[in-house]
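Lecture notes, unit on binding sites. The following record was shown on slide 14. It pairs a sequence with uridine-5'-diphosphate.
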Amino acid sequence: MDQQETVIPDSENRKKPVVFFVLPCYEEEEGLRHTADVLLKKYRHLVAVESISQKSRILFVDDGSHDKTWSIIADLHKSDQSTFGGVKLAHNRGHQNALYAGLMVALRSGCDAAISMDADLQDDVDVVDDFISEYQNGNEIVYGVRSKRAKDTWFKRTSAEAFYKVFNWMGAETVYNHADYRLMGRASLQALSEYHEVNLFLRGIVPTLGFKTAKVYYERGEREAGESKYPLKKMISFAIQGITSFSTKPLSFVTACGVASILVGIGIFVYVLISLFSGKAMAGWGSLMCSIWLIGGFLMVCLGIVGNYVGKIYLEAKHRPRFYIEEQF
Ligand code: UDP
Ligand code: MG
């Protein structure tokens, strides 16, 4: 069996969880202190009302920033060692890897649940209360879903929503309008730790873990400080990353195009025969068109077949866990 044993806590053991807030940060010097203030307030409130354990932490992951991000995190830690933690990646590895690193540190540090959020406070911090109450109701994963995207630009909103639709059509699973604002319990973090792939696309992986899940709706605000670290180029490569990490449909598409091309070739062949018998044939044209479409189609089908094998190798190479047991008697 390729998994470690994890006991999913019952509601009694979910009462005062140790929660780690995990925030990946890349060049966030402008807004980080403000983010820390807001989160600290929320943290203290949750501890005061006994929603979370006082062993909970706010964990910043510096994703190889070149500005003062890390020294700010170090200062925060100095000011309150039991609350603020920091992890510094040696190089900029991208949001997904930074988040994964933080979640794994949280898991190893013994958290009961981890809440991932962006460092720019675009995701409404007050939703955390709902996350925790859903966790206490027995949900292992709680997704933050954007109810409206009014504050996003038209382009960002349309392109993002189109992406979710294409992604699901390609056969991968995502939660519509959910980014990486979510709570994951220890059992699901443990399951996630068994995914060893380098091309990470967490919002595609997490729904495939299964478990009991819930959704919490919120409105996404604007970035509090600094600029988006996801310019158009990164957004496009992130979308391509998502699709190519989860779907081999583009490979089947090549085969389908090949078959279509062969059908066109056959159609032209029939047309050539008809024009030959009706005496309207143009010398050379028919045979040329036939060969182009038939050979083109044949090559594409071959490519598709090779692609299918490559697709299988690619899925094997990921070494994804085959299953994860939720309960056993
Ligand atoms: N981020 C990161 N590494 C990167 C790019 C971004 O850790 O290479 C972090 C960033 O600091 C922020 C989160 O990922 O906390 C989301 O980035 P951003 O807010 O710029 O994306 P947007 O909200 O514009 O999509
Ligand atoms: Mg943002």
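Take-home: Residues 249-317 form one domain.
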